[in-house]
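Your task
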Amino acid sequence: MKLYEKVIGLIKEDISQGKYKAGEKIPSEPELMKLYDVGRSSIREAIKTLAISGILKVQQGSGTFVNQSFQEVSIEQRLRRADFDDVNAVRGLLEKEIVKLATQNRTEEQLGEMERCLENRKLAIQDEDALLCADADIAFHTAIALACSNPVLSDLYYSFTLIMRNFFQAREKQGISRFAMNHHLHEQLFKAIKSKKTNQSQSVLQKILDNNY
C-alpha cells in the first residue's frame, strides 16, 4: 500500500470515529505529518484525493475542513450496525470481483505480499494467537484487494475490514479453530491467483465464504 493510501484510510477512520466532525477543520499539514508519521507529499496526495471524493474541502487561506455535506453516519458506522448475514452477502459480491481482477492483474511484488501475509497467518495459527490470526487474515485479503488494480474496490473492501475484526472476536471465542480449519483454502486461493486461474480462484473463494461462520 502506498503511503498516501494509508493516510487516506487513517483520516477516514478518524472521521468515522468522530475525531474530525463535519464542518470541522482538520490539523495542518505539519501536524498531520507528525500524527501519521509520513512526509508532506503523502499528506498532500491524501488530502487531494479526499477532496476529489467530497470528504474534505480545501479552503485557500483557511485550511482543510471535513465537508459539511459529508454524512455523519459513515459507511463504516452503517456496516457496524448491519446484520452479519447481510454484510457477508455484500462482502461476497465485492470480493468475487476483487479476486477475479487480482487473478488477472496481480504483480510479482503483490504476490510476494500475499505470500508474506499467508505465512504470518499460518504462524499465528501455530501460536494459537487469535488477534494475530485476525490481523494476518485481514492483511491477506487486503493484499488481494490492492492487487485488483481498482482503487474504488480496494477502498470499499477496507470499509469491510473495520467490522471483520469485531466478527472474528465474536466468532473465535474458543480460540483459532475457524482460522485453522480454512487455512488450506487460503493457500489454494493464493496458488490460483498466482497461476492466474480465474475459475479456480472464484471456486476457492466461494468455499471460504461458505465456511465463514
Observations:
- The longest helix spans residues 84-105.
